[in-house]
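Pasting as-is:
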Amino acid sequence: MAKARRSGPPAAAPTGDERMVELTRRLAALLGELSLSEVEVESGDIRVRVQRAGAPAPATPAAAADERPLVADTVSPALVTVEAPMVGTFYRASSPTADPYVQEGDVVKEGQVLCIIEAMKLMNEIESKVGGRIARILVENGHAVEYGQPLFLIDPQP
């Protein structure tokens, strides 16, 4: 039995942008297959995050104009990301009546406590891994966090 052969020139290898688009499409398909609300992949200095839209499609055209398309997060390579080292509940202060450990714009030192993650009734202090200025706080107080989820963006100071 003869095997069919393709005729014509061999297919060109996909470019970096084409691979990124294909990866994004595959991640979007994975959201539906696994009933996930978001998926993130990081390799080297490239991070792709695909997130499902929060609300069902609106019924009126006027409401549809208010919807913004989903855009992947882009993070400046100069910023340092502090990630959750465990699954738990994120708290910005030591108690509900206490001031938050840090605010956006605050200058922090390496080893300074930034927040607490409660896991299995234990309060775990999360420290800054660099000195610098808090550029962004990425999690709301009292929200659940996953392992590896970005919590803070810090602009390191020389």
